[in-house]
Specification:
binds pyridoxal-5'-phosphate, alpha/beta, Aspartate Aminotransferase, domain 2, Arc Repressor Mutant, subunit A, eight-stranded mixed β-sheet, Aspartate Aminotransferase, domain 1
């Protein structure tokens, strides 16, 4: 096939290197370029297409880093001989419904990528303590741990969580009200099997945590995207848009992804609406532990005198997401309903990791770890913010956030966040586009960047330099 057939269309919003990358990627995926087939040299193609060599170089780098092309020194560059021509390789940011790639992945897996948001610092996890606890747990496997486990979760872990929530989050609950789940998704699915019914309408923050949105929609819920401003969810707009919604999903401590806190008047208005309508509030308290100025805000649940709040927390941020452990706290009046439901439920899986987390909490390691991580993340956030301000300050506007484990930066109008994030992902950077969190008209244009795994200022600077190479001039 001729190189001119792959000439990028000059679409004003998509940089040329991206157009070139997409054309070659699609041609390889569709089998129009065969495994092992030679592609033109950078110099030849640049001259044939009348584009700068740097443009072709950038597209080639992306195709090589994703495994579409292989370079063979003087022998030139070829389509990877290992490339299955169909169904093709993954496209950055691909969503379900695309038929020309690998299945859509909600979360980035494997080694953490620079900037990958939402992850704790893997290098700072106390592995020695964890290994010791794992040995202790395995040595004392008692009959109760070998028998069928309680589908509500391992009792000592539920006790440790109830104690922790009382002290740190102002939530008074008994261990019987705590249900261990497989991640936040497990908590949502359990809610859909108990208090929610397929077809129920709910308010969902917009922008909002898209994996949660997808899970609820898949379980048959109808979601109304309710806009968020500087005070969090706009309760009055929710009341106008869907006054009879049966539930609302909120991230009151750090709205995901904007990082703002739900103000006290809005908290009270939301609780009043739920009381009046007998609606449920699903509080997703996923990373409230990380706040760098002042104390963590109390949970919305701590104000819930009428028992309308179903509270969820996760160990993904405070320990690590590979554990797949989260929890749900239900009102006392619903305890029985949930216990009955989990009896026909696979439960949270093996008791061993639950027993290790329980021991980690009971022996005081959890509180110490959180204290250390709060200090460490304040420093590492500084590395990223400083590098961004110095090296890319004119391109983006860093949003002030009192906490959380990611930085949100809004982009200038001429930069498209999806295009930039796709290019960044193709270049091995874990940046996500803010518009992915937007369920409506893609009015949000920004980047979400994790900082917890930048171990030093030069680490952050090197990553920002790689990102800066992708800006549209
Ligand atoms: C807003 C929000 N809620 C909940 C979670 C926790 O999800 P899980 O427990 O499935 O890791 C995350 C993790 O990224 C999150 O960002």
């Amino acid at each position: 096939m001729k190189a001119s057939e792959l000439n990028p269309h000059r679409q004003p919003d998509t940089p040329l290197y991206m157009q070139l990358y997409q054309r070659y990627r699609d041609a390889i995926s569709a089998g129009r370029l065969r495994p092992g087939e030679r592609v033109p040299s950078i110099r030849t193609l640049a001259s044939e297409l009348h584009v700068a060599r740097g443009t072709v170089e950038m597209a080639w780098q992306m195709l090589v880093s994703e495994g579409y092309l292989v370079t063979e020194g003087a022998a030139g560059t070829r389509v990877s001989p290992h490339m299955a021509t169909l169904p093709g390789a993954a496209h950055p940011g691909q969503k379900p419904g695309n038929t020309d790639g690998l299945p859509y992945q909600m979360h980035q897996m494997g080694n953490p990528l620079p900037f990958q948001p939402g992850l704790p610092a893997f290098d700072a996890f106390p592995r020695k303590i964890w290994a010791r606890l794992s040995g202790q747990t395995l040595r004392r496997v008692e009959a109760t741990m070998m028998n069928y486990p309680d589908p509500a979760g391992y009792a000592p872990l539920r006790e440790a969580i109830a104690t922790y929530l009382g002290i740190s989050r102002g939530i008074r609950c008994a261990p019987e009200q705590v249900f261990i789940t497989i991640g936040y998704q497990g908590a949502l699915e359990l809610l859909c099997r108990t208090v929610l019914r397929a077809g129920d309408r709910g308010w969902y923050e917009n922008p909002g945590y898209f994996p949660g949105r997808e899970v609820l929609q898949q379980m048959g819920m109808t979601l109304t995207p309710v806009p968020v401003d500087k005070e969090g969810l706009q309760v009055s707009i929710g009341q106008q848009m869907a006054p009879d919604a049966r539930f609302a999903v909120v991230t009151p401590s750090h709205q995901s992804p904007t990082g703002v806190a739900l103000s006290l008047p809005r908290r009270l208005a939301l609780l009043a609406w739920a009381n009046q309508k007998d609606a449920w509030i699903i509080e997703d308290d996923y990373d409230s532990e990380f706040r760098y100025h002042g104390h963590p805000l109390p949970a919305l649940k701590s104000l819930d005198h009428e028992q309308r709040v179903l509270y969820t927390g996760t160990f993904s941020k405070v320990l690590f997401p590979g554990l797949r452990l989260a929890y749900l706290v239900v009102p006392r009046a619903l305890q029985q309903t949930f216990h009955e439901a989990v009896n026909r439920w696979p439960g949270p899986g093996s008791v061993l990791p639950q027993a290790m987390v329980a021991a980690f909490m009971q022996q005081g390691h959890f509180a110490r770890h959180l204290r250390k991580m709060r200090q460490l993340y304040a420093v590492r956030r500084g590395y990223l913010v400083e590098a961004l301000e110095r090296m890319a300050g004119s391109q983006l506007h860093i949003q002030p956030q009192a906490g959380g484990i990611q930085v949100l930066a809004l982009l200038n109008q001429h930069q498209c966040d999806k295009t930039l994030a796709a290019a960044a992902q193709a270049a091995g950077l874990g940046i996500r586009a803010l518009s992915e969190w937007d369920a409506t008209s893609h009015q949000h244009n920004g980047l979400l960047m994790g900082f917890t795994n930048f171990a030093s200022a030069p680490d952050a600077q090197a990553a920002v330099k790689r990102l800066s190479a992708l800006w549209v001039p």
